[in-house]
Amino acid sequence: MSLKASISGIRGIVGETLTVPVITKYVLSFCTMLGKGKIVIGRDSRISGKIISKLVKSIINCVSRDVIDLGIVPTPFLLYVVSKNSEFAGGIVITASHNPEEWNALKFVDSSGKFLNSSQFEKLSDLYNNEKFNYATYDKLGSSYKDKKLASSNIDNIINFIGNDLIKKKDFSVGFDTVNGACGNWVEKFLKKIGIKKIESINIKPTGKFAHNPEPTPENLNDLSLLVKNKKLDIGFALDPDGDRLVISDENGNILSEEMTLAICVEYYLTYHKKSDVVINLSTSRMVEDIAKRFERKVIRAKTGEINVTETMEAGGELIGGEGNGGIIAMEINKCRDAFVGMGFILDYMARSNKSIYELSKEIPKYYLIKEKIKVKESDKEFDIDICIDRIKKEFENEYKNVKTDLRDGFRFDFPNGSWLLIRKSNTEPIVRIFAEAKTEIEARNLINSVLFTI
């Protein structure tokens, strides 16, 4: 299995593809491309994270850079810290996000508090391949410092934007599941500060031994459903290991789709905050389009990849957006997907509207979005990912000659009846992703099957 190197990070299986030489060269390359200043690092709870963190700090110090180590921290918190401190040249998050626990990754953050874009990643790759690094002499080595308090500023930032007076008055009861990732203690701290008194939790110890599949999708969250029902809670939240994705359980224990998280947050923002256009990626549900239309706002679609959404928002001045995997981006708060922003928005929405999360979800337009994965063996040339996608594309272009096509990210077909189909290569795993959305489940499934039959 090869290393997955993209704008979504340098991801691999520890000891197989993510090795000491790979980590060393990428960290040196990143340090070389940065301006002057300290580098902030943080990690999720993976078992490999501690040793990789020590390695990364040592490498940075070897090129005369100082390191501020935030420890185990949600990814969006590190990005916020970098964005608000001019003394920091950039940051590195050691996390493979929703990938299984044998994986880890390096996610690089520039001085503005954003992940690397395509051109920056290309520069990083060139430096990696050229291997021209300037090492410090013994008397100019950098130093490392730990600071576990600095990241708390993001909690204050979110609450200052939302306010918490109404939430405190409602006396909500909240449960959460952080899959033994980075966020357990941080979620508890956030909920208490925003005014939640009754808190129930599962899988919150940062052991790195994930209690279930770490991708926060409905099929992986049965324990959260039971917690909400058994404890009679108002709402439940599930986060991925590094805290950039959020999924909701309603008060009946129904796990809502990850697409619903963004839809509800967009509706909340447009209802109670500024009337902005909305940016989403090409694989996000049409629910967001229908919501924006009610507010007479446009939806702009960007290529998949968090930085692509963020930069589209920056270029156009849009203030709300995200990705349908449960990632909310509110530019006035943070320049990245942030599950804590999502929790704050949803609790404030419940408080302001006097409605339960079940009632709010039922007001969102209904679509059926099916997501499939095709695992591709790299040793099997017939099913090479690029060849596989190209073959499917040709078949569908012949069949749907008059259908609107978008080739920015794999290929997407938009049909006259509002349904759509997207086939793309994953940025994070050796798989082909297939998305199909329609008004009925049968129609969406038929679109998915038409791709599977082609393969």
In short:
It is built from 15 helices and 20 strands. By secondary structure, the chain is α/β, with parallel strands linked by helices.
- Percent of residues in beta strands? 15-25%
Overall pLDDT level: 93
Number of strands: 20
Biggest pleated sheet? 7 strands, mixed
Name given to the CATH architecture of the largest domain:
3-Layer(aba) Sandwich
Shape: globular
What structural category do the secondary elements indicate? alpha/beta
CATH level 1 name of the largest domain: Alpha Beta
Number of helices: 15
The percentage helix is: 25-40%
What is the total number of structural domains?
A: 3
Query: For the largest beta sheet, what order do the strands appear in spatially?
Result: 1-2-6-5-3-4-7
- From the 3D structure, determine the CATH topology of the largest domain: Alpha-D-Glucose-1,6-Bisphosphate, Chain A, domain 3
Structural summary, described in words:
Helix 1 (20-33) packs across helix 2 (49-61) and helix 9 (258-272) packs across helix 12. The model has no long low-confidence stretch (mean pLDDT 93). The protein folds into 3 domains: 4-148, Alpha-D-Glucose-1,6-Bisphosphate, Chain A, domain 3; 153-362, Alpha-D-Glucose-1,6-Bisphosphate, Chain A, domain 3 (3-Layer(aba) Sandwich), CATH 3.40.120.10; 368-454, Alpha-D-phosphohexomutase, C-terminal domain (TATA-Binding Protein, 2-Layer Sandwich). The chain has 455 residues and is α/β, with parallel strands linked by helices. It is globular. The longest helix has 15 residues, at 258-272. Strand 8, helix 7 (184-194) and strand 9 (198-202) form a beta-alpha-beta unit. The strands form 4 sheets. A 7-stranded mixed beta sheet has the order 1-2-6-5-3-4-7, sandwiched between helices. The protein is built from 15 helices and 20 strands. It has helices spanning 20-33, 49-61, 75-83, 118-130, 153-162, 165-170, 184-194, 222-231, 258-272, 287-294, 306-316, 339-353, 357-362, 385-399, 441-454; strands at residues 4-6, 9-13, 38-43, 67-72, 88-94, 103-109, 144-146, 173-177, 198-202, 235-239, 246-249, 278-281, 299-302, 320-323, 327-330, 368-375, 404-406, 411-414, 420-425, 431-438.
